[in-house]
Amino acid sequence: MDRYLISIDIGTQGTKAALLDEQLQVIGTSFEASRLLGEKAGEIWQEPDEIYGSCVRTVRNLMDKTGASPSCVEAIGVDSQMAGIMGIDKEGEASTCYDSWLDTRCSSYIKLLESEAGDEILTCSGGPVTGSHASKILWWKHQRPQQYEKTAAFVLPHGYVTGKMVGNKADKAVFDHTCLHFNNFSDNEKKQWNEGLMTHFGIESEKLPRIVSPFEIIGTTTERFAKEAGLISGIPVTAGLGDSAASTFGSGMFETGMLLDCAGTASILCSVVDAYVPDRKNKTLVMMRSPMEGLWLPLSYIAGGGLCIRWLRDQLTGEPAMSYEELEEMARRIPAGCNGLLFNPHFSGRVLPPEPGMKGAFLGLDFNHTKADMYRAVLESIACEYAIYLEILRDLFHKENFEKLNVVGGGSKSRLLNQIKADVLEIQVQTCETGETALIGSAAVAGAAVGLLKDYKGKIKSAIAGKDCYIPEPHNREIYRKKIIRHRQMLKMLSGWKEEMEICGL
User: Fold this and answer.
1) CA 366 to chain centre
2) Which of 25, 257, 265, 363 could form a disulfide with 342 if both were Cys (CB 3.0 to 4.6 A apart)?
């Protein structure tokens, strides 16, 4: 009898479900787009019931499309966005909206956390104060006190969804350890909550759930969920993990010195090391835990790096908008360096190091620049950001070489962007045969948890065989070395710009 795994990836732009076999080969997928809400600048949130409903509907559609027998499904794994958070009441139902990682309403609480406990937070959580869990929880406490009081536990989207799948209430809510670096109330190295910090900021300890391994089985599917999703009751469900952690796991990040580019809505550069070393000097890298014990995945990212590419296409190429292929063909004819044009991709504020007030910008425009220059400038800006991250990685972890970058996600389809990254970083860039690494990672965690996958490492490596390879072009080396310097100068110029405008009343 065939045996299958179901994985669900709750992304920013949509929810995707997949059915995989015992070899982690994808049998079929189903997708539903997200609805991002917000009435004012800085507000970006989602309705939790829509998130849960999208999981139900994509699984049902998946089962209908593949014709697989529900009785053959051995386990379910779920991953989701990591830096946002939401509340649930005692019954496990949503008590708040999902406060997206792109939402910046908590900016004043970032400053509060930094001024009163910045050093301790960075040392303990493995990352600087950002607009993620702690600052958002403080925002709920002070700006929405009724909803805060109703909240029995703050959870991630996958914690909410898996809890509803198995019928758990808030007293059984969990928080998987791959997301601890985004919670500034955590002691990441010890895998526990920092009670001293929580007391200092007036956050009740019971409002943060039990910390668990992603491999922990938290229950089995209820009859209600099974009926809605076209499954059977009693299927084991794992605690799940963050989407970036799932992508790294599903792309075979098992050995120190490896580099991974998760080229999605966010542009993430991640690596593998075996030591916990917080980036206290630069406040740019955060120490994400691997699903596997003993490994760490230091990373940094642009919030909405991929969205900047989409924004330019949608806003500046007419109606109907040009295709990415058309833009790429035009941009290929633009020389490296974009004729002096610079772009700042931090539309949602610079997350790492934390500068929530920073805004996006083009710098150096003249009448000779075209939309092709602008498009290429956006791509080059992402690579320049990665160059900054890579330099810090090499400074913190001297024994690692970091000589090859594997690329996954939607951005891996861009041949131009892949070549630009190879040229700017001066390392080999390798794309993967499949772009479903988060779904593969979540499925592998679920399969390992129930004993279906004895050799998940080997099966993951087989499932994500290398595809295209990009070698740095020497004639672009000096151009991009100079551009990285200019990119740094631009970031320095734009630092504090919003605050200066507010002082001027603008």
Assistant:
1) 35
2) 363
